[in-house]
Amino acid sequence: MALHPGDRVAVIAPSGPVSADRLAAGLHLLRQRYEVVCSPGLLSRSGYLAGEDSRRWAELCWALSDPSICAVFCARGGYGLLRNLPLLQGLSPAGQRAIPLIGFSDITVLLSWAARDRLTAIHGPVVTQMGDLSPADTAGLFALLEEAAVTKPISELSSIVPGRARGRLLGGNLETLSRLTGTFLQGALSPGEPVILLIEEVGERPYRIDRALTQLLLSGALSDVAGVVVGDLIRCVEADGSGPTALEVIIERLGTLGIPMVAGAPIGHGPRNRAVPLGAMVELASDAGRLEFLEGAVDPH
């Protein structure tokens, strides 16, 4: 359902611990548009987690079940959602409201669950990132959440393998996607219809990107992929600068599929993070360097 200014939204921390300063900047932007509700434990820390598994799970359940909440914004990525994946499996999709879930990076776990069951998954900035983004990117996120019309296309992409393909936009953080192999979400990228795969990454050396892609290929998780969109590859280099680049590894590994591929999408951990609707039908025109959205993210009613 489309959001409206003044609607009540939740901010949760289901993964890594949250920086209070960076959170404050993002909350300031959100509060200019919506009524923002945070749980008392939002700034909890337990090592590399935003509090114990039970705290993070209870917070997620509250945000998903409170009928007054119209959207759920994740404060940060990091790591942690995978630990609660068995509990997420127990949530019946039929019992979930299709409110927007917004985030990226480790939040790919939650977005994969939502997109698989045709809930509203928005691959977009986490709250701690919002204060660093351009006004255009935050405005784009709000427009995606509030307008039923399809979002503007992403243009000026680098054509890697020319061609055209149509399918559902799925994916997210590559390392996180590879870790879904062997879980109940392994089929999140293979819904039985064509998929345009979106991948982005941060801090992973090229051989690790090779490993993640190879794992997905060997598992059959990419069997429905008809096109590939590569987003940001931030700090994905060898310390000495040797060997192939991260993009060269992706081209070598996924080039074997013989499908259209583009790179350079302003999506991920870089200075921009264009919000896009996962699960929406898109058309990839690699020869024109363009990703066209054929469906909106939200229902107008």
Keywords:
single chain; 301 residues; alpha/beta; 13 strands
Describe what you observe in this structure.
There is one protein chain. With 301 residues, the protein is an alpha/beta fold. Helix content is 28%, strand content 22%. It is built from 9 helices and 13 strands. It has helices at 20-31, 53-65, 85-89, 108-116, 127-130, 135-146, 174-178, 206-219, 246-254, and strands spanning 8-12, 35-38, 72-74, 101-103, 121-123, 158-161, 164-173, 195-202, 225-234, 261-263, 276-278, 281-285, 290-293. The protein has a 7-stranded mixed sheet. A 6-stranded mixed sheet has the order 2-1-3-4-5-11, with helices on both faces. The longest helix has 14 residues, at 206-219. The model has no long low-confidence stretch (mean pLDDT 95).
Uncertain spans, ≥5 residues at pLDDT below 50?
none
Structural class: alpha/beta
Within the largest sheet, what's the order of strands? 6-10-9-8-7-12-13
Q: List the total number of helices.
A: 9
- Silhouette: globular
What is the beta-strand fraction? 15-25%
Instruction: Sketch the topology as an H/E string, one letter per element.
Output: EHEHEHEHEHHEEHEHEHEEEE
Mean pLDDT: 95
The separation of the N and C termini measures: 6 Å
The largest sheet, given as strand count, sense and whether it forms a barrel, is: 7 strands, mixed
How many beta-strand runs? 13
Helical percentage = 25-40%
Radius of gyration, CA atoms, in whole angstroms: 18 Å
